[in-house]
User: Fold this.
Amino acid sequence: MRVRIARNSGFCFGVKRAIKVALKTSKGNHEIVTLGPIIHNPQMVAKLESENIFKVDKIDQIKGRPTIIRSHGIKKEILEELQKNNIEIINATCPYVSKTQDYAKSLSEDGYDLIILGDHNHPEVQALRSYVDKEVMIVANADELVDKQFKKVGIISQTTRRVGDLQELVKKLVPKCHEMRVINTICNATTIRQNSTLALAKESDVMIVVGGKNSSNTKMLAKICESFVKTYHIETACEIDRKWFKDKQDIGLTAGASTPDWIIVEVYNEILECIGNINKVDNIEDIPGFKEE
Ligand code: SF4
Assistant:
């Protein structure tokens, strides 16, 4: 039996950056808050409380404390309200997300009907939508636009979608419009993680996907794996059931862009425990990685 991890599992650039900014700001016991979870990982959000970084859900809970803007941004009107209330803002929005917001705005200002490939309820998409004054269509796929025709259409995507889904949307919309402008706003970190996970899933008998149940990119990794192999999406090692590994030879492990290394290491060690392997590790770098042939 062997356990292998997908390349690039765990924290992406934007998440690392947001956490670094938060820790730097809270250094010296300054209490700070994040409006909404700083990243979509409940265990990391809970851990950050010991560093004086607290999550609040509403502006009236901020109570004068400096406020971190999370990696996936916040709605324009909320940002304006914070400014109006003279709240100190530390912007940890990922530059790729900010760039996507700029694209949304400029496409709309240039007269394109804007379509966002994404999840209506995801905070990133809600924030993105708020930067456009006109009507915006948020769709999970082209089937939601069956009866529509467009003169000028602009297409962007939530940063964590699949490139294949964007291609499919574009393909289906070409016959329905006169002019189309597509900006691929899917983040490279997302694509890299999806590709390595896909390659590993194809070569595994079971996949363990680690990350927040509220994490869009982790859910997408689980969805990708499910099309090939039995997949379990877990947040922590406690959820593991040793029965999952019965009669399995190749166990694959992957983690979303918001999953901290210590959780991945705990999960890996728990899998080893279940399969009777004593070679536990202390660092993520020590977990055997999967390399494509
Ligand atoms: S997944 Fe990409 S866009 Fe999102 S925070 Fe990470 S680097 Fe930024």
Q: What stands out?
A: The chain has three domains: 2-10+189-286, 13-93, 96-186. The chain is about 35% helix and 20% strand. The radius of gyration is 21 Å. Residues 95-109 form the longest helix (15 residues).
